[in-house]
Amino acid sequence: MRVVGVHIADVAHFIPENSPLDMILRNKTTSIYMVDTVYHMLPLPMCLACSLLPGKDRLAFSVFWRIDSSGKVLKERIAKTVIKSCTQLAYEHAQSIIDRPGQSLTARDFPLIVSQKFQLQDVVESVRTLHRLSRKLRAKRLEAGAVKLDQPKIGFQLDPKTGQPQKFHREVIKESNELIEEFMLLANITVAKRIHRKFPDRAVLRCHDMPDRHQFEKLANDFKAAGVKFDLTSTSAIASSLEKAIEGSKDKEAAKTILTCMLTKPMIRARYFCSGLTESEDEFKHYLLSIPIYTHFTSPIRRYPDILVHRLLAAAINSGPEPTLNPNEVHKIANVCNVQKYNAKCAGNDSINLYFMKHLENVKKLKMRAAVFKVGLSYIDTILIDTGHHVKVTYGGGKATFIDNVTPKTIEIVHKKDNTERSMTLSIFSECAVTVTCKKNQLKGKLVWL
């Protein structure tokens, strides 16, 4: 049996409802993350004052659980607290602990522990325990039908003087990321249940609707044309079919890239809503997470809905005044949050695309891995495996012909040069090497003949 606590900065304590700052935040609703900067939702001094820094007393909202060794939650408790962290680990620090089970670790490899009550070994054991429990929680979620459709994300190394992109890298999701994700999800679910139980008419929740039936029918036809057996009847079936399709493919990373793209396309965006303006609790469901009720509680420094949730939660545990917003007002604010969240996401993606294209212009061309999405006689549609960009790729002097009576559609490309003939066979889910360039803000690709 373990007691696990998730502690979130009590931002709402410093922002009274309907105060001038609160009214500004209702319009901003979110931080915006660009490649070269962050446009914070909160004033920067407030961000720093609320952040849970080591050795500093900080107001927090804490969710505690008693969890057994199988990952079953036996009891929960929510409270306003004052916490003082003993250290601040980055993901790579936690990952180094996870990667070296049973090994002794030295303090010089980790941030300073500012409390005399704790030693490095205490931190190490805590991370290892949290890792074990998070794996149990994750297994239960996936068994219940949760689907992971991770799109590639890239980061950049910028020249400190000019701000120009020097390098880019694909951000890899590691077990330390998944550890945090599991407990954040559990906190959000726990809080969603509590605020809805106390305020069923005006809880701020987040749902993800099932895709439109016609969109799924089209997707089923696309899978059939690709020669893939795919069951779309439930999220559990989707997760199982996705795993089997990837494992059955010759080029697994390419298959995962294309299948994830195909599944993501018909999905409806998740959205915030007011619980009191729905016809039934069936509308609360989060489709991809495969859970009946959900909200956002864990990031009040960068998301306004979390501040609304904190106010409701404080009232629900008798630690704060009851919010004055009625269901219609909550509904209007939720809609603004939905629009602004989408706009912020688009701005962030546009920033990434701009820097990627600028990097390509600077280096002239890059050799990259591509996953084939669609084949044709003049070019193939591909998705770059490490960035997620869609690129049309020409054959670099090769001539393509369709191979008859084959599912999925398959082409053979023959390339002749210097009395040497080479051929390549490609179909959907194939991986190939391509040279990528950028001209007039458009990505172009050419097949690499190895």
TrEMBL record:
Residues 2-319 form the RNB domain. SMART domains: RNB. This is RNB domain-containing protein. It comes from the Eukaryota. GO terms for molecular function: 3'-5'-RNA exonuclease activity; RNA binding. It holds the Pfam family RNB. GO terms for biological process: miRNA catabolic process; mRNA catabolic process. One of its GO terms (cellular component) is P-body. SUPFAM superfamilies: Nucleic acid-binding proteins.
